[in-house]
Amino acid sequence: MIPRYTGKEMGSIWTEENEDRTMVKVEILACEAMNKLGIVPDDALHDIQTKADFELDRVHEIEKVTNHDIISLLTNVAEHVGDASKYIHKGLTSSDVKDTAMGVMMKHSCELLIDLEKKLHEVLKRQAQTYRNTICVGRTHGIHAEPMTFGLKFLLWMDETERNIERLELAKKYISVGKLSGAVGTYSNIDPFVEKYVCEKIGLEPVRLATQVVQRDRHAFYLTTIAVCGASLEKMATEIRALQRTDIREAEEYFAPGQKGSSAMPHKRNPITCEKICGLARVLRGNAQAALENVALWHERDISHSSVERIILPDSTILLDHMLRKMTNILDKLLVYPDAMIRNLNKTGGLIFSQNLLVALVGKGVLREDAYKWVQRNAMARWLEGADFKTNVEADPDIEKYLTKEEIEACFEPKHMLKHIDDIYARYGM
Asked: DSSP state, 39?
């Protein structure tokens, strides 16, 4: 991933240096386990524990000859360890070490993502409370529908974020596994104790069954979960972008002093970070598709998944890390304009109260089809002719037979439509 999107902590997990260090750790722990089984002598284990090291430049130099990254690493480690290196990688295959190390890296990256989702949740909860009773218009199909509160938008996103935390916790469980079971998963040249010992020491669970590799449905679930989390952020970003439009402008991204919106137009205040989040969400979905393609491998393993994972695993976790940090900051500093919300609420001259009139008429015994027709003809007069909806309703000969002016007036009161807001919030202990 490019440095522009790479956070320090998440980026450090996916460095080549960290990956190789983690694989060497797996190799050392495997030697410890074999020492307990009487396979690796004490003095050899001591040399392995104290001398095992590598230099990336030397690993790369060796790889030019071997064309094999794991062998190149092990060759460089052997140069440091000496004679005792004959016990390193005994009975193992490259995937034993690689997949187990990857399990550690995915686990750590997932923990960072969960922490960031929780921080996002905190901001959403606070904003949901702040704007709990801030009235705005709800839109369906982009068209004014009925009054709601701005806080409900945050509450909805908070609810979705809670599900994303649950999804990531489950994904973490699926990928926090390791395997040291040999070339086709049969433990042909290694005792299952070694796998159990290494996984316990390194914070993973041994898989119950593997081929040469940990099965890639786990990785696919992990990356599709990341893609879902990204889609949730895109959903939030899209709403803010829509609300920031000049002709709506009910909310907008914070615009810092000294910030520039356009190289040509000095007046511009653009939702650039929200737009970036929407764009990066597309990358996450593409990576998830690639992960799904990795599930089906030939027989007990082929290498077609490996090159893909070198890209999609670091890139997806790094991108979601970046997106979560940015969206949390956007929502924390979001500029909100309640006066604009009221102006927009009144733009259609009361059309948003049409259902209230429909329900009131039905409550008086009018057939729903008739009531709908009466209210709709007055609504269309507003849409097409600019007529005053309320005035026309009050003068409608069919409607005035059933509703008094006071009853009609009550239909145009938004607070009545929001009487259950507290009930919704109570579901979240708020």
From this structure: S
| Tens-digit pLDDT profile for residues 79-109 | 999 999 999 999 999 999 999 999 999 999 9
Gyration radius (Cα) of the chain, Å: 30
Q: Kindly report whether the global pTM for this prediction surpasses the value 0.90.
A: yes
Span 379-430, pLDDT tens digits: 999 999 999 999 999 999 999 999 999 999 999 999 889 999 999 999 999 9
- Which domains are seen in the chain, by residue range? 1-90 (1.10.275.10), 92-250+264-347 (1.20.200.10), 351-411 (1.10.40.30)
**pLDDT for 40 beyond 80:** yes
Q: Which of 12, 188, 262, 304 is catalytic?
A: 262
Instruction: Give the Å distances, CA to CA, from 249 to 20, 204, 244.
Output: 51, 49, 4
CA dihedral 96, 102, 105, 110 (to 10 degrees): -120
- Is 141 part of the annotated catalytic residue set? yes
Q: Does pLDDT of 277 surpass 80?
A: yes
Options 141, 267, 299, 420, the catalytic residue: 141
Residue listed under structure tokens 């450090």? 12
Q: In sequence order, what DSSP letters do the residues of 182-241 get, joined into one string?
A: -TTSS-TTS-HHHHHHHHHHHT-EEPS--SSS--THHHHHHHHHHHHHHHHHHHHHHHHH
As a whole number of angstroms, the distance between CA 232 and CA 398 comes to 47
In angstroms, what CA-CA distances link 410 with 357, 377, 398, 403? Answer: 9, 20, 18, 10
- Is 307 a known active-site residue? no
Closest Cα to residue 331, out of 285, 257, 273, 281?
273
User: Phi/psi at 225 (nearest 5 deg)?
Assistant: -65, -45
pLDDT tens per residue across span 107-157? 999 999 999 999 999 999 999 999 999 999 999 999 999 999 999 999 999
